[in-house]
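Re: the 547-residue chain
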Amino acid sequence: MHIINIDHLTINYAGREIFRDLTWAIGDRDRVGLVGPNGVGKSSLFKAILGIVTPESGAVIRQRGVTVGYLPQEVSLPSGQTLLDVALVLPPELAQVEADLARIDEQLGDPRVYGDPAALERAMTRQEKLLIDYDRLNGATHASRVKETLLRLGFSKEDFVLSTDSLSGGQKKLIMLARLALEKPDVLLLDEPDNHLDIDAKRRLEAFIRDYDGGVIIISHDRYLLDDVATQIAELDRGKLTIFPGNYTAYVTELELRKLRQQQQYVAQQKEITRIKEAIARFELWASIVVNERHIKQARSRQRMLDKMEERGEIIEKVVERRQMDLQINGWRGSNRTLEFKKLSMGFDDDLLFLDLDFLLRHGERVGLIGPNGAGKSVLFRLILNELEPLSGEIKIGPSIKIGYYAQEHQTLSAWLHRTPIERIRDLKPMTEGEAVAYLGKYLFSYEQTSQPISTLSGGERSRLQLAAIILEQPNLLLLDEPTNNLDIPSVEALEQALEDFEGSILTISHDRYFLDKVADRVIELDNATLTPYDGGYTDYLLAKGK
């Protein structure tokens, strides 16, 4: 049953049209993956559904009583509170009922009320109605259900006392998701809910979405998640929304078939249009030579035929592929023993991260490093980069190895935030300003963006700038820490292709399971202070673990 209808919606932002005449019907049990390149307006569409953004024209129509819950891309929590305190914040309706009950209790203790039979009866009648609402909203069990939901989303009881200031971005999202689950809106809008989550947390998120008693629309670049939970894909691109039944893999297959059919129809129609235009030109030529009215009428008749095709919208457009990053990482052969750990141990104070790790990365290998958040994966990278000293053991890097490092939080750009992308690129390789602009254009930067401070760039734009910088460094060992986090799917696919062609070795930390399946030929899991190797990609790892 459709419970939200988007009717011919047009939205402009800062003078730019995001989309026009968009129509969509959302069902009460839909599981929709909303996909499209960064910047096409996916988050704007969510805000229009919520009523935060006012459309230029059109409307979002909800059935009476339909509620919508929203998990934004970035979550902020009040400082200085515990995880449980924040999670226990009452849903608005329950909070109102509790406040009304408290006021009634005060009234019942007032002599002017309990001494007046009529006022007392009114207060008790009101209290009775409020207690019915309180039971309907499960007020008495709210705290226990919050704790149960937190545990289901992967938190432990020990985590309940953690300060909000110490929580990761992923943990903050899960807390807000728990609060939404208790509110039980009819439709959940989840804007990149999987960002910053480790693989186990993503699996729990998927179970939550599958089991949710209502509709769910997810903006996500995690193709594995979209394969697991989506029953339809809504593609927003070039201002148009297209619905595809099935999960992400079905969407990709159908999209390619549609493009193939469209291109075939376009070629056939263009041949017919060319034939008609040639006939018009021939009849016009004959008419000019012999001044024959019949030839003039034939030319006009065929021209009207073309005009009507255009008026009725029957002209088939040529398939135009969206421009992707021109990503080519030209590595080179270095030492056969690229990177090696020998009895490597690391920890901070009383917190031991790992003990006696042994590992060898050979030339040409692609290894995915996985494990729960906090296991020490990023610390391991900092040890390789000589930013930290291990407690014991050693790290050996081959003598002819040059490292290219991609930082998850874009730390490699920290010293350049007030400089421009042009300045960053020219620092790495001597070139003219025009050459730098052209080079950055390959990474989808507009002319204006190349001369703006890096601090103004989005997460996805900083990710592309990091990749552009790495390529100029010409490494033969890539250390990639969550390289897909801020990239849209077309950019991730361009990265996957570039890594496939890369002549060198790769060690990548990633929670992107689809990416690991495409890139890794070996997976190593860092967990419980030990490193365990598995042959193959993420799916092979799951099979080996019996999951």
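Residues 1-89+141-246 form a domain with the Rossmann fold fold (CATH 3.40.50.300).
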